[in-house]
Amino acid sequence: MILLAHGFRPNTLFSKVRVNGQNAAPLYKFLKASKPTFLGSRIKWNFTKFLVSKDGIVIDRYGTMVYTSVHRYAFFTVAGRDPDCSRLD
Predict the structure, then answer these.
(1) How far apart are CA 51 and CA 54, in angstroms?
(2) Phi (first) and psi of residue 22, to 5 degrees
(3) One GO biological process from the UniProt record (predicted)?
């Protein structure tokens, strides 16, 4: 309340973006072009995930039917960590 009284206006961190079509967000255009599927590059359903290296290279794309254990293994492998470890430190 005090911050609002002094003219502070919170920024929007996230907002709805388009992921397909001409008006797709540039990030999604890049991700989809880097890893198209055998059915094309469109994102067909919620929860499509992309694994991106710290250098900005798109390593893989996962659809909705991929198990979490596959994501975990890929993440730890890319991070140079043991995929069987039980915690991030």
Answers:
(1) 10
(2) -65, -30
(3) response to oxidative stress
Residue ranges for the chain with pLDDT beneath 50: 88-89
Q: Where are the domains of the chain?
A: 38-89
**In the prediction, which pLDDT does 3 show?**
60
Determine which helix (DSSP H) or strand (DSSP E) holds 29, and give its type and residue range.
helix 26-34
- In contact, 48 and 63? CB cutoff 8 Å: yes
Query: Strands (DSSP E) along 17-68, which ranges?
Result: 49-52, 58-62
d(CA 58, CA 55): 9
Q: Burial, 8: exposed, middle or buried (Cβ in 10 Å; 0-12, 13-18, 19+)? A: exposed
Q: Which two tokens stand for residue 37?
A: 């599927």
pLDDT for position 89: 47
Q: Centre a 10 Å sphere on the Cβ of residue 11 and count the other Cβ atoms it contains.
A: 5
Asked if 69 and 75 count as a contact pair (C-beta separation under 8 A), the reply is: no
Prediction pTM value: 0.65
